[in-house]
């Protein structure tokens, strides 16, 4: 498997992870004020997931240009 294929597979997995984190944040928002103390943890998880996904997408763009 090439580096490009490996990176694309990683991006697919990270996309699923980010989507799940987004839905967790959305679900939490609908339940407020229940579990309001977990807002920061759930939001941080979503932020980290999307930051990692964006980083890998940038890596992919760089690899495709090379």
UniProtKB/TrEMBL annotation:
Residues 4-66 form a coiled coil. Pfam families: Rop-like. Keywords: Coiled coil, Nitrogen fixation. This is Rop-like family nitrogen fixation protein. The keyword Coiled coil applies. Belongs to the UPF0437 family. It comes from the Bacteria.
